[in-house]
Amino acid sequence: MAQATSFPKDKIKVLLLENIHSSARDLFREDGFIVEEVHGALDYDALLKQVADAHIIGIRSKTQLTEEVLAAAKRLLCVGCFCIGTNQVDLQAANVRGIPVFNAPFSNTRSVAELVLAEIVMLARQLGDCVRQLHQGQWIKSATGRHEIRGKTLGVIGYGHIGSQVGVLAEAFGMRVLYYDIAKKLPMGNNRPVASLEALLTQSDFVTLHVPATSQTQGMIQAEHIAQMRPGSYLVNASRGSVVNLEALAEAIKSEHIAGAAIDVYPKEPKKNGEHFDSPLIGLPNVVLTPHIGGSTEEAQESIGVEVGSACLDFTNNGSTASAVNFPQAELPLRSDSHRILNAHKNVPGVMAEISRILGELNANIHAQHLVTDDATGYLITDLDKNVSEEVYRAISSLDTNIKTRILY
Ligand code: NAI
Q1: DSSP state of 89
Q2: When you count CB atoms within 10 A of the terminal residue's CB, does the N or C end of the chain come out lower?
Q3: Edge to edge, what strands does the sheet with 13-16 contain?
Q4: Interacting residues of 55 by C-beta distance below 8 A, sequence separation 6+
Q5: Is 240 a catalytic residue?
């Protein structure tokens, strides 16, 4: 009887679109799943057809998982976005179908931190201009205005995953590191917090931004903040384009108050390669412009494959939704003495009373239970005696409020 409903792994089809890194494919295959890979994005009709028998769909930014596509994916258990953004998925439509969506918000943080360190050295040595001049056949050798970064002060705004790594790497270069964050953050090494943005701006030789895009950080660095920076200091932004007023920065570079800037993110970014790019910073001295490549490395792609692949595996194998972006988050350690029932239900009054009634009537002994809800959907994990699990599973699956129920053993 036990084999009747716990779905065999070699029947679970994982559809990976858009050249997702092979680390994800390997992870699924090693766990016994069937993996189908498609190199590019599919057109809409092909997508509707392909998703019909997929249990897990992996996408990057080009595939739109609309309500219609999700409805066509009748067997779908979860979606993996092998990237940061998730706005290509109708998250609410997935939620009400009991489908968690996972992404990889932190896999590329090291890549950004390394780029920032490289840029700090570039700015201190005016490397961007040097390289350009020599490519143009101009030999200009000078030490004037070129500096070591050892002993200089780096101010980090936003001391999260990236900011704190930048702080650690900068210290290895012999920099003194200050940081400003609205949340209380544990300092790494000898990094030190400061109490205000102004304190950070007035004390730093280099300022680097690592805040998220929020209403609070929108236009956070304006002319008045740049004026507070030390004369001859440098600004780095690899966070979000909405954070720095680039016109004000351009003016401060022209007036030589700011000695250079490295910018990776812009208020308006071209949608695809080859499209025209414009910025008030173009052509200014000691300005390093990069096309939003902070997180774009092979290593980051590989770790995105592992991070999102693991989240999908954890959900399929034990029901964990711990890092889902659209779904109540729950995680319970697996027990060897239990069967596990995973139930997504409509979040309406009376559901738990009904489920408790079923458990009572079937005399089910509960070993562990965890309920989490959001506005629309409730997610219940129940570990229970093996002898009644099948009946409990069937009874819960047949409730009107049931969205999706699975049994694991
Ligand atoms: P995180 O969430 O780990 O850290 C952000 C930190 O900023 C948090 O400690 C938070 O408390 C702090 N913060 C929020 N509002 C603030 C404010 N008003 N003032 C001061 N601190 C504030 O984020 P993570 O992973 O470090 O990413 C940081 C930024 O880097 C994000 O904007 C992200 O989108 C961007 N990013 C850019 C990439 C690129 O390719 N250039 C790649 C990856 C991330």
Answers
A1: B
A2: N
A3: 34-37, 13-16, 56-59, 78-81, 101-102
A4: 12, 13, 14, 75, 76, 77, 316
A5: yes
Instruction: Select from 3.40.50.300, 3.30.70.260, 1.10.340.30, 1.10.10.10 the CATH code of 329-409.
Output: 3.30.70.260
Query: Is pLDDT above 60 for 109?
Result: yes
Catalytic residue among 75, 161, 257, 292: 292
Confidence (pLDDT) at 6? 66
Residues with CB under 6 A from ligand 1: 106, 108-109, 112, 157-163, 180-183, 185, 210-214, 216-217, 238-240, 264-265, 292, 294-295
Residues 325-375: tens digit of each pLDDT: 999 999 999 888 899 999 999 999 999 999 999 999 999 999 999 999 999
The whole model's pTM is what?
A: 0.86
Ligand 1 pocket: which of 61, 83, 87, 112 to mutate (most atoms <8 Å of CB)?
A: 112
Domain limits, the chain: 8-108+297-327, 110-289, 329-409
Which atom belonging to ligand 1 lies closest to the Cα atom of 220?
Answer: 18
Third-level CATH fold of 110-289: Rossmann fold (3.40.50)
Which pair of structure tokens corresponds to residue 259? Answer: 């000695």
36 C-beta neighbours (distance < 10 Å), count: 13
pLDDT of 101 strictly over 60: yes
